[in-house]
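Need C-alpha cells for this chain, all 228 residues.
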Amino acid sequence: MLKALIFDLDGTITKLTLPLEAMRRDTKRYYIDRGMPADLLEPADGISSSKYKARQYFISKGISEEEWARMEGEVDSLLNCHEGDAAKAATLIEGALDVVRQIRSLGLKTAILTNNGRHAVDIIRERIPLDDFFEVIQTRNESPNPKPYPDGLLKLCEQLGVQKSEVAYVGDASIDGVAAQRAGIEFWGVTTGETSRETLLESGASVVFGSLEGVYEEARRRVEGRAD
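Here are the C-alpha cells for all 228 residues:
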C-alpha cells in the first residue's frame, strides 16, 4: 500500500542548475591537497564516493575522528559556496508543485531528501514555498550519511511513520536509485534532470516517467488499486 512519496530536489522538483562537475572536482582537489594520492580517486567518483575513499585513507593514516570531522566541515563549506550560488537562481520545474498538490490530495504524505546542504535549501525555501507541500525537507546535514547511502531514506520513513514497502523515492539520478535499492525502497525515475531513461532503469527504477505528471498518474493508480 502506497502511503508516501519522497522526492529528490535538484532535477526533480527544481531545475538542475548545480555546477556538479565543479563540486566533484573541488571535493577531490581538497583531499588530494591534504595528502591523498590522486590515483585513489577515479574519474567516475562523485562527492559521496570520494568522501568514502578519503575517510578510509586518512583514518588508515592515523588521523583522529575529530580531525576527520573538521575536514568534513571544510568540504561542506566548499559545497555550500557552490550550492548557495545555485540556490539564489533556483526555479521550479514547470508544474512541479501543482503535481505534488495533486499527489497530496490522494492522501499521500510527501517529503524531500536532497544531498544539498541546509544552507542552500534554506535559500531556496525563502524563494519557493516548499514547506507548504512537504512534511519534511531533509538535507545532507540531517542525514546520517548522504546518498548513495540509504540512511536518509530510512530516517524519513521513521519520521513519516511509514514502512519501507509503503513509500517510493522519486529522483532523476543514478545516485537516487542506488540509495533506494540499498534502503529496500522502490525507486521511480524521472528524466527531468541529468539522466536518461535507460540509465535510470539500470539504476533500479521500477518505472521511469518523462515528467512529474506521470508520477501523479502512477500514484493515483496505486491508491485506487489499494482502495479496490
